[in-house]
Target: 2,5-dioxovalerate dehydrogenase
Amino acid sequence: MLLIGAAAYRGTHGEFFAIDPRTGEKLEPAYGLGGVEDVARAAELAEAAFDVYRETPLETRAALLDTIADGLDEIGEQIVARVGVETGIPAARATGELARTTYQLRLFASVVRDGDFLGVRVDPALPDRAPLPRPDIRRRLVPLGPVAVFAASNFPLAFSVAGGDTAAALAAGAPVVVKAHSSHPGTSELVGRVVQAAVAKHGLPEGVFSMLFGSGREVGIALVTDPRIRAVGFTGSRSGGLALVAAAAARPEPIPVYAEMSSINPVLVLPGALRNRGAEIGRGLVGSMTVGQGQLCTSPGLVITLDGPGVDALGDAAGAALRPVPAAPMLSPGIQRAFTDGVGRLRDAPGVTLVAQGQDDPALAAGGRAVLFRTTKAQLDANPLLTEEVFGASSLIVTAASVAELHEIVRDLEGQLTVTVHADAEDLDLARALLPLLERKAGRIIVNGWPTGVEVGHAMVHGGPFPATSDARTTSVGTAAIERFLRPVAYQNLPAELLPAGLDDANTLGVPRRTDGR
Amino acid sequence: MLLIGAAAYRGTHGEFFAIDPRTGEKLEPAYGLGGVEDVARAAELAEAAFDVYRETPLETRAALLDTIADGLDEIGEQIVARVGVETGIPAARATGELARTTYQLRLFASVVRDGDFLGVRVDPALPDRAPLPRPDIRRRLVPLGPVAVFAASNFPLAFSVAGGDTAAALAAGAPVVVKAHSSHPGTSELVGRVVQAAVAKHGLPEGVFSMLFGSGREVGIALVTDPRIRAVGFTGSRSGGLALVAAAAARPEPIPVYAEMSSINPVLVLPGALRNRGAEIGRGLVGSMTVGQGQLCTSPGLVITLDGPGVDALGDAAGAALRPVPAAPMLSPGIQRAFTDGVGRLRDAPGVTLVAQGQDDPALAAGGRAVLFRTTKAQLDANPLLTEEVFGASSLIVTAASVAELHEIVRDLEGQLTVTVHADAEDLDLARALLPLLERKAGRIIVNGWPTGVEVGHAMVHGGPFPATSDARTTSVGTAAIERFLRPVAYQNLPAELLPAGLDDANTLGVPRRTDGR
Model:
């Protein structure tokens, strides 16, 4: 069903089914695809809801987020089961992802209640200032307007219908129109109905939330170019993200697009760490690269280290850990095909050797077989395709002949979500020298750990320079994600009767404020 | 002279002169235009300076800003005199603008010393958390990289070489390459040399600041597309701004452009205010629209009110105030020609009547004659050109036949820097009903005042929806302007030896921090 405001109806632009990636079988029921008229209706309702929703009491908005979280918990088992058949994600992981999703919603509820996100600043009038009096100026952040959210395939809960983008936008006071991902339509509808019911329960305008299915080229572009949509959140492929960025920039009035697109999450193993614990690092690499069949935005796809005996220890240990890893279903047949192509590209590239492969399982319809390759900096220089993202459990060890070469490899990398450094005590000077470069390459720097596992907190940055994202100034995970959907407005000499909530002298909302910069 | 790092030399791509807009005469000396090789050299030096400059102690960075302010004060008389001959801005206004410029620099010095702009957040490790321990995550904001600043013509000090964009970027830790405006090259060089000397005095890398002259199409685009430039600040025309936005978006790695472009700063006069003090508002309008010959970004170019006898009182009083206003030199012959064209377009438009004109002065080479027109909503609907910005002292009164029409006029406006409302007690309900719409249209809302006069403070928003600016999420005036040049980076499990300044357990920098969101 398409969920457009309070309505639920079947789209009339063709039908599609979810596919069980374990068996390749179509899953009932059939879903109807929406068209541009559904986009227009959702955008119209969102626009109609905007002025009311953005001025709802903070407590109402927070309660909406809590109610969504509670509703997801209530049908948790049903959700986890449907996630399983639609994506092949095992119940334990789906349960964890559901917990992450509800935690995220409740965390944003607390952000709304706190009120600091309103960014209130008050510069009181100075009537006696010379040569000119200073007027009274008060500022707050207001939501940009209705937000389009493009759900991701790889986190059918945490980056989907009621995921981080939706939670952040609703918290900011922005109505949301979700373009659901066609790989998990049943999960999307279960979650979407929970949101729809929560909107109704709190007596909010129906347009606060809509969700539809549709083709990226038609429905997706219609959504991004609808004049009532004022910002876009997206998690997905580089080509998909860039298409939305271009469409948004070509609007008569351009809007921001927050697209999280592509990252190979390089892991640097510095000489001391390589020498002291190469085998341990090799085992850790396999653990990280195979989480979720490598289908995480932060999966480590590139290991950079110095040539020498330590690399063999690392590779041997990684190979030993990788070989018994069972094949597992990938998220969808399409993703499995792209993975197979990407792995083939690496296997056939000159100067790239196979370190090890995981188990194969021909019984799986869309099974993924983990794989680790090795090459040298010289090969990397000759073949830039080697550093293109292969979405899935594939990683490539690159050896540099010297510290200078190691620097060069990092320097030539594109922007990343994360970069990881394994460094022991004797590596600290080198790590310190690398740090400024790493800061320019990534949104998050991890030392002696692994990039997979993204904490939902206040200090998290899940973002990074292009092409990791289309806007390095933001994060799509954690409480700072709310800032993406806000803009400042200053109010000069407004009489008390007109001042928006939070800006009055008495601060009746009790929100944190900065007065004269303090 | 071009000031490229520590060097000063004459550009070799043709020469140009400033022109005294009062006499039309060329002013000595001749200036040399730079070319793409000068852009490349400045960008190279800026890139080389970046990693050092961004990690200078906050006190050093603040002292740099203070030293620039002191240096400008020291040669204040010389600067004011040169501003006068190059732009026709009278000494009193130039002196005020200089004071605003040095205030701005010193204010950003205080922002740097305070350290809150670093946006430090610490989420400490929770080793005992179940099911998984939480890693230690700390975040700060780092500068985007070298910033290109395009100086404006209308504020030869406050929005020019050491103006708001430069002060904010230097405060953020970003080296700056200024493309100076060719209408005030002597002023630019005086100011640029002060900045250059301050960089040297504090022993900072020479690339922290460069300044060059050059054509927008060649040098400007070369600057925006140089891979080492990571953000752009611009104040100027809509066509100029859009060209830079397009060039930045077409880079292999796109970068943010903060372009302040175009605003007609509508003034709404609500029925009660019109009835009670129409004449006073008419006089106030003339006062505001003629400040700086109307060559301010916030000059009120459109007055929206209800038809009726009050409008005549407003128009009569405005006319009486306008007629004796003497002609005055505009900033440059080019701006004067564009103003004459714009005024002609309004004068010749069907259904537009002339309310009054200021004095003419044929002796002035580039004199501007203030002018006020009147029309109706019906005419506005028929001719969208009527709401295009006319840069200079021109304003247009538009009458609506009803409150509904008044709403429609506002609804159909493009994005603005400011919107002003004149409202008396009986207008408060109407004003309240309009407020949500006004918030969507502008970055600053003024009640019972005038948009000209932009306070430099913490709560100021000098920004607004497209096409007022290319990025409504920001301000180019006030302390929040620093945010434009920063991006967040998270550090996960860094050993104490690697933690950047401000993130250590002891908070040795003493910067404000948010721990676990508090």
Remarks:
- Chain B has a mean pLDDT of 96.
- Chain B has two domains: 2-115+141-261+471-498, 267-447.
- Residues 45 and 207 of chain B are 4 Å apart (CA to CA).
